[in-house]
Specification:
The longest helix is centred in the middle third of the chain and has 16 residues, at about 185-200. About 30% of the residues lie in helices and about 20% in strands. It is globular. Strand 14 and strand 15 (about 160-165) form a beta hairpin. Helix 8 (about 260-275) packs across helix 12 (about 375-390). The chain contains 12 helices and 24 strands. The model is unreliable at about 400-405 (pLDDT under 50). The structure holds MU-OXO-diiron. MU-OXO-diiron binds next to helix 2.
């Protein structure tokens, strides 16, 4: 793909990768993807992001179609996952005077990714960059979808650069939504991308939507086409998908595999017990219910019970496929347990149990296993086991309680207690959260203040 002029002084200099079918190992990309990057030209020239390292040469050619690459003054990194930062080191080797701009977390990621001490200016909410003919404003948007994420706002051009936010794995050669031929395919990929990348970060998505300037006319994401005529619809969809439904009942998902029905019988006993505890229960045999549906149900469940027989001294692949697709970001308060019937050695349930604990579900001390066919006593014990797992669940049914005045870092778990303050970093004991300076950052992991949430 060549450089494409999007607006006066704004160029797309990214790269299409239409042949890609799996992105980042786990994400299907039916229509390939694009590694978008943008070049703003004027009194100062600014690159917004780089591309996957494999496509550096094409990226460089695109820049050179517009200006000599040595004339670039700044490189803004809205997000530093290697699909965007992968060419930073190569670019810096050509342009050592280039100044990089990123959030504090972004700078750290970039150093760790490149193993280089790069010239990087860190920016916070409201900081600006005066380019002479325009002023760029930086809008940190943590957890969209990394701690380092931010938007860059070009007010003069009414253009918002959002990196992954509002993106899609989709190749549109003109880079504009209005030119997409197969709109249904794009809309499907837009939804799939949201679910995979932003579904675990719904509160952050709502916060990000609220930070978007109202008069934006062009959204430039870092995957897929730029948004013009679809901005309103895209925002509306993100808001709908991210707004939690009222929660009146806890949910449980009992997912299992069963070769001869023994583990299925246990699953049925567990489901019945959980229903008795007031849970809305769904059960699924992983060999019958589609994988994607099982993963969705696992993500939604407050209590997860995973059952499996033992085959080849392990749980079968279909069970692992579901478990290893669970994003652990939103498991706070959730509980899980493992169970299974077996005939010889019975390793599956302990393996699953260990895995679930590794995801940081609340879990009982041990899994529940039965040798061959469950007796009524075994089924009763299975029911008790399911109840013991449910007893560990602390997911609130109504809106989360926010009393207490403590705030917790969403990234590392550090708790800010107003009674203690953070004297080592200039915050006196007794300082309420609202009076903690916006420049203060987490003393453990360094993320900005707006990465904190009210402790329950
Ligand atoms: Fe497209 Fe989070 O990187």
């Amino acid at each position: 793909m060549s450089a494409i002029k999007l607006r006066e002084n704004l160029w797309s200099v990214g790269v299409l990768n239409p042949a890609l079918r799996v992105f980042d190992i786990v994400m299907e990309s039916k229509y390939g993807t694009s590694y978008n990057a943008y070049l703003l030209t004027g009194e100062k020239n600014v690159l917004i992001e780089t591309v996957h390292t494999d496509y550096f040469d094409e990226y460089l050619d695109n820049i050179r179609q517009v200006i000599p690459v040595e004339d670039v003054d700044y490189l803004i990194m809205n997000h530093n996952e290697p699909d965007h930062s992968g060419s930073v080191a190569k670019l810096m080797a050509i342009c050592p005077k280039l100044e990089i701009i990123a959030t504090k977390a972004g700078k750290k990621h970039l150093q760790d990714i490149t193993n280089l001490d790069l010239p990087c200016r860190t920016v916070a909410a409201g900081d600006t960059l005066d380019l002479g003919n325009r002023v760029l404003e930086f809008i940190p948007s943590p957890m969209l979808h990394w701690a380092d994420s931010m938007f860059t706002w070009d007010k003069a051009g009414k253009t918002l650069f959002t990196c992954d936010f509002l993106g899609a794995h989709f190749c549109e050669p003109t880079m504009l939504d209005k030119n997409i031929h197969d709109k249904a395919a794009y809309e499907g990929e837009f939804a799939y991308y949201y679910a995979g990348i932003f579904g675990p970060f719904k509160p952050s998505v709502l916060a990000g939507l609220d930070k978007m300037p109202a008069d934006v006319e062009l959204v430039c994401p870092s995957h897929g086409p730029c948004l013009t005529e679809t901005i309103g619809k895209a925002k509306e969809l993100y808001r709908t998908w991210s707004t939690p439904a009222p929660k009146t009942q806890r949910t449980a998902f009992v997912v299992y595999a069963s070769a001869y029905g023994c583990t299925r019988t246990l699953a049925e006993a567990a489901a019945k017990a959980l229903e008795g505890e007031g849970y809305a229960v769904t059960t699924a045999d992983v060999t019958v219910v589609p994988y994607a549906e099982c993963v969705k149900l696992a993500h939604e469940a407050d209590v997860l019970l995973v059952g499996s027989p033992t085959i080849n001294r392990a749980a079968p692949k279909a069970v692992w496929d579901v478990l290893t697709s669970i994003d652990p970001i939103n498991l706070k308060g959730k509980a899980a347990g493992a169970f299974g019937a077996y005939g010889w050695s019975g390793e599956a349930a302990p393996m699953l149990h260990t895995f679930l604990k590794g995801l940081r579900y609340a879990a009982p001390e041990a899994p529940f296993r039965v040798l061959f066919t469950p007796t009524q006593a075994d089924l009763d014990a299975m029911a008790e086991y399911a109840k013991s797992v449910a007893a560990l669940c602390t997911v609130p049914v109504d809106a989360p309680k926010t009393e207490g005045g403590k705030w917790v870092c969403a990234l590392c778990g550090y708790i800010y207690d107003p009674a203690e303050g953070d004297p080592a970093h200039g915050v006196a004991p007794g300082t309420p959260w609202e009076q903690v300076p916006s420049s203060w950052s987490c003393p453990l992991c360094g993320v900005d203040k707006d990465m904190f949430k009210k402790a329950e």
